[in-house]
Write a structure and sequence with these properties.
This protein is of the alpha+beta class. Helices cover 49% and strands 23% of the residues. The protein is built from 8 helices and 5 strands; from the N terminus they run H-H-H-H-E-E-H-H-H-H-E-E-E. The longest helix has 18 residues, at 129-146.
Length: 208
């Protein structure tokens, strides 16, 4: 048997009343209905976001990059900033960081190795981070004459990644992106996440 609050929540906008009564009843109804909304916990949101990241085929390149930067056991951490009810679902606003499973210097070496053609890498006297950085820096300088925007992007990537990762150690946390958004919907087996376009999204410690 439905309670007064159940009936009121489903129909209070349609009730006839004086203007003053409508204001009072609407405020009371919104407060009562709000108390029935079961917001997902931050841990539930993080689990839904991680499942989306692991299962979505469009994230294949991103998963590969995260493993290169963080190591095989590197993990994404999600910090929920705000959760907004959206008529049956929830908009989550969050940041994401990477918990390192190895030193940042080792990660940079592995990442930069993928950015150099194999035939060029084979010519280097040493397969070290310093050698890779020098080759990429020289490449950026050479690009100034043919493709200045690409040269700038490469230099910015080297600078930003060096600042972010060079001195990090295993278990350190590195910020990847801020201001992300996702729609979190209830599902039979828990919660389901759909990424949302967010004008507030900012790259922190990822290649440009």
């Amino acid at each position: 048997m439905s309670t007064f609050r159940d009936r009121f929540c489903s129909s209070f906008f349609a009730r006839r009343a004086s203007a003053a009564a409508v204001v009072v009843l609407s405020a009371a109804g919104l407060s009562a209905c709000k108390s029935d909304i079961a917001f997902p916990a931050d841990a539930d949101i993080a689990q839904a976001l991680q499942a989306n990241f692991e299962q979505d085929a469009n994230n294949a390149k991103a998963r590969e990059l995260v493993q290169t930067l963080g190591g095989e056991k590197g993990q994404l951490d999600y910090k929920v900033r705000r959760v907004i009810y959206r008529q049956g679902a929830f908009e989550a606003q969050y940041d994401v960081s990477l918990r390192m499973a190895r030193s940042g210097a080792e990660s940079l070496q592995k990442l930069y190795a993928t950015m150099i053609p194999k035939e060029e890498a084979a010519k280097l006297p040493e397969q070290t981070l310093a050698s890779y950085e020098k080759w990429l820096g020289d490449s950026a300088q050479a690009l100034e004459k043919t493709n200045p925007p690409q040269a700038t992007a490469l230099r910015d990537t080297l600078r930003k990644l060096g600042e972010c990762y060079r001195d990090t150690k295993a278990n350190d946390s590195v910020a990847l992106m801020d201001g992300l958004g996702a729609l979190i919907s209830p599902a039979r087996d828990g919660w389901y996440a759909d990424k949302l376009q967010s004008p507030q999204a900012q790259l922190r410690c990822l290649p440009v």
